[in-house]
Amino acid sequence: MSSGHCMTGKKIILGVTGGIAAYKAVEVASRLRKAGAEVHVIMTRAAQEFVTELTFREITGNPVNTGMWGKVAHWNVEHIALAQMADLVLVAPATANLIAKLSIGMADDMLTTTILATRAPVFLAPAMNSNMFSNPVTQKNLETLRAQGMEIIPPASGHLACGVDGVGRLPEPVDIVARVEEYFCQGQSLKGRKILVTAGGTIAPIDPVRFIGNRSSGKMGYAVAEEAARRGAEVVLVLGVSALPDLGNARTIRVETTEEMRQAVLQEFSDSDAVIKAAAVADYRVKQVAGQKIKKSDDDWSIDLVRNPDILYELGQKKEHQVLVGFAAETQNLMEYAKKKLAKKNLDFIVANDVTMPGAGFQGETNIARLVFRDGRAEEHPMMKKSELACVILDHLEGIFRERCARVE
User: What is the CATH superfamily name and number for domain 5-186?
Assistant: First the structure.
């Protein structure tokens, strides 16, 4: 790991809760500060029974937040100020009580309120009695928080303060800080790259009321765009019909039809370093769109459809330096269709999934994928969160970038 330059100037909220491991949070704060981070500590009332506010104030050089009703150190609404300023929130130690409160969205003190209000990544380092940690309720709460995108730093095994040996020790401060540093260093791995991502479905209007569409939620492409932005890339997200919000650290272009998506993609393509085409594009459009709502009658109704342009094929013919990644959502003959699409559309690799498999379809939070490459290699990945699959995809993208740089050198 690097010497800490990745954390220089980063604003980190360090939450300290009431466990015996709170004393280790002092070293965590010290190491974060030495790595160049600006550290703001929030202590729960119970944490103050173990470590003093003065200790953290002296180590961080910043006021320590201990309650909702004390003197304001920054702006008028303190928890919102802290939530907005944070580049990352780290809770070490995170007690079973705090984990339970976060899992149900409770906001009854400064720390839980700040976490609920922030859009920064949240890292939790659980520390507790081993029976408490292994209790199904605690494990379910942790799984809930993982599903919400929080990072859980696994506790260590060893002798606990309660006198038993088991899982539940707070990891050593050096390991906690190394994990945070890894996060920020990884955030530089795509710096200087422009990544164009498409997500969501496109529609084919029938009349001003009706349209033909598909079940895509946009979550997979959105996760890829989010991860690429976290790694420092300039991200352009071309988002089809989706309930997802604009991506805060990227430029979001909203479209509805396939032609609108095509125009947006071609506009951004020439100076992009990579295109990740995760959108579920409508392959056909209505030949004649009605200007007014078509009224229901007793007769059967037929609609003439015509082919839409194949955006991915067009990009494959135009590409020069760009890395081109496609998706294949199939219901049968997965590998056969994926390999054909890879070759026909001149892709660098393709992400294929069988949408009939539980955990791999549209709308959900997980996916099951096979990655197929130009050289014939294939990787099978078990069910994982879409955010995790996004990391796999971008790791391979970075590998292609590195190979190309090596060939040039």
Answer: Flavin prenyltransferase-like (3.40.50.1950)
